[in-house]
Amino acid sequence: MIQEHSLFLRGPRVVLRPFRELDLPFALVWYQDKEVLRLCEGSGIVARSVGDIRPIYEYLSQHGYLFIIEVTGEVIGEVCLERMNLPWVRDLYPGERIYRLPIMIGDRRYWGQGYGTETVELLLAFGFERLEADRFYIPGVWGFNQRALRLWRRLGFREVTSRPVILDRWGRIDETDEIDFTLTREEWMARRHGSKAGDE
Length: 200
Ligand SMILES: CC(C)(COP(=O)(O)OP(=O)(O)OC[C@H]1O[C@@H](n2cnc3c(N)ncnc32)[C@H](O)[C@@H]1OP(=O)(O)O)[C@@H](O)C(=O)NCCC(=O)NCCS
Prior knowledge:
Blueprint (H helix, E strand, L loop, with lengths): L8 E2 L3 E5 L5 H7 L3 H7 L9 H13 L1 E8 L2 E10 L3 H6 L5 E3 L2 E2 L10 H16 L4 E8 L3 H9 L3 E12 L2 E13 H15 L1
Parallel strand pairs: 5-7
Antiparallel strand pairs: 1-2, 2-3, 3-4, 4-5, 4-6, 7-9, 8-9
Helix pairs in contact: 1-3
The chain binds coenzyme A.
């Protein structure tokens, strides 16, 4: 079952609202788009069915805040403020409250217009201010996903590790890197104060 929360987060242009059962058909379209899958998934990618994606969203909804991203009333993607589930990341930072942020603007017409940046900014503020997060950790961004790399770097994330990886997709081999990023509460606050001081 998709567990629904009741939280709405609003930015200047973006609205994050609870992901509902009725939103699965939107996600199904994104999970059948080859270019979206190329950027988000690993090896052996196939277009997904509702039966494939339902457990993904059930899991996310039960382990964090799962949102639909809307712009002027249009559904453009989804994002989850997810409690860190990878034991090796928790072992790296013992005792810390860590979140990850899987994001998919599934409607390609909305890429590159700042909506991803605005979405992540809203969730960083919510995570650090309201959930008392110590750290965000983004595992496994593909080295060819320029938009995602620039998104995390621009928001102050630091590269932690980079591992070479070989992906086998649709019979084609892609050699790339898998890059992890992190941002701590202190780093986020320092940036915030820095930009406020700069604004005055
Ligand atoms: C990655 C994603 C969330 C970024 O959101 P977005 O709204 O498209 O990106 P933004 O407009 O906020 O821009 C983010 C950065 O990418 C840059 N960018 C935009 N289009 C670009 C392009 N075609 N090539 C390279 N960089 C690009 C922007 O200039 C910006 O960097 P800057 O601030 O240093 O200038 C979104 O594109 C997406 O969901 N893509 C598909 C799924 C995916 O890749 N998920 C992330 C997995 S880690």
